[in-house]
Amino acid sequence: MSYLKLILKNPFRNKTRGLLAIVGIAIGIMVIVALGMVTGGLKASTTSTLKAGAAEVSVMQTGAGNYGSGRINESRVTDLLNISGVKETAGMLRATNTSTSGSSTTDVSGTSAETGTASTGSSPGSFAGFSVTGMDPDKLSLAGIENIDGALYSNESANEVIIGKTASTNLDKSVGDTINLFGRDFTITGVYETGSFITDAGAFMSLSTLQNLTNNDNQVSNIAVKIDENANATQVGKAIETEYPNELSTTTAASMASRMNSALNTIDTANWAISLLAIIIGGVGVVNTMVMSVFERTREIGVLKAVGWKEKRILGMILGESVVLTLIAAVIGTVLAVIGVVIILSVYFGGTIEPSFAPDIFIRAFIVAFVVGIIGGLYPAYRASQLSPTEALRYE
Amino acid sequence: MNKHVLEFKNVWKTYHMGDGLVNALSGLDLTLDEGSFTAVMGPSGSGKSTFLHVAGILDTPTMGLFRINGEETINLSMKEQARLRRNEIGFIFQRFNLLSQLTSLENVMLPMIGKDLEKVKEVLDKMGLEDKYHKRPTQLSGGELQRVAIARALVNDPSIILADEPTGELDTANANSIMQILQDLNRNNGVSIVVVTHNPASASFADEIVHMSDGKIVQKDSK
Q: Which residue of A15, A30, A252, B157 has the smallest Cβ count within 10 Å?
């Protein structure tokens, strides 16, 4: 028997009370970890949209909104090259495959500044809602696509496609496989990964092929604009809007990411607030549990004092028991959060959002648990250490 | 001259009770020599338990002089008091006061700071409990429980054992057996022993019987 063994054993002498305390704290820890994993994943995805080489400005039809369903005459793709600060442009057409049978309805819509693609949340194995973007293969860097496992589709080919890594996983398709889109079989020539959960859940093919398939000849839904090295994305965007008033609107990747990050920071702040609440609520639960435990063990504490235990040793034992409770709760809460988040993101979001497993999320949860253990155990531990041995020994 | 293990000189212990004061010890004078075996008897409320608590440095006198092995305790810090209790005193209680979640070995180890398993086994063996090392209190008889408690009191080689009604929960045979163990410890190992008891049969094992009444020694009988 050791001091440590006593500390590990004592919290479970009253199993129901110990378990209830653990459940109370574990719920708080679970929320902290789950929110951390989801917001962390979304932040990583947002950050990846700002990668070097991708378009800084996205152009859409005025009134269509960021992901609007507007259409732009394809001639504007070359017209925009005349705007000061514009270095390179690429027309993009987005369509959504709506059925698994191959018959499809076209849903031409606007595209985001990041890549021009969006997923409507395809479920694993289903082609319905699968987002396809038409773009010239030599312009794919403007969509943030740099590295491809396999090869690009050729511009002339009418039956080649590349798909995102998430799509590859969800649809169980890889290079060389065939995928039926808009009623036509396409060969997958490559699998790309950008880090953006939206882009990686879709597919890219030749612009002209998608225009033909969706009856959108000479139409694009977005134009991705790469600006000169010294140009300012906002000023370039304004210049485009000034040149084509009531026709073209712009948004910058940075402003979109900033808006996204702002929202995520709000969630992050909420996460800290939840952590604080968890400390308070969990702390009250631990105080209650430990006070009851000390109360029931008054005579025992008197015996420990009688056999020569110092105040510090008794204080340490009760504090240790409190921390044991909260750390067990942290382990349980963390495991449940990881399982829950992975399952929910996989089943309900089709794996489009990758949860974050950053160590700081878990470190924060364990620090919260430890702090709750210390704060919650402090008063009962002090009370136990200050018990009068004679009164404690008389306690019935 | 014999060395004194316990010295009480005009020791008072006063408690607040309601609006008044109650003297649990009223000018107690008692000196016990090293190696003595003393039984303390007296009616309920005579101050026996308070005497034992002061002797065990679980309580401090309100007034007067108290020494254990020549060391005054009244001005000792809590830490020093704990050290004295751990090194010089062994407690035996009427209700054994063993920790229910621990085995015999673990209970006996409680007063030790470091682990000395051999020493723990040695004292348990001395109590005839060599086959009960891993039994919990619920698996032991009353006599065995008190023998584990004696082993716990002995494990740090105290100079004095203070026993509060050690036979109060035992049948006659077990009571005699426990008192015999204490007598043997006193005779063979030179451990000073103070037993508070209501039971004259248990008290008869001691060399000296002290009678208390109203917080004072009223009679001393030596063999």
A: A15
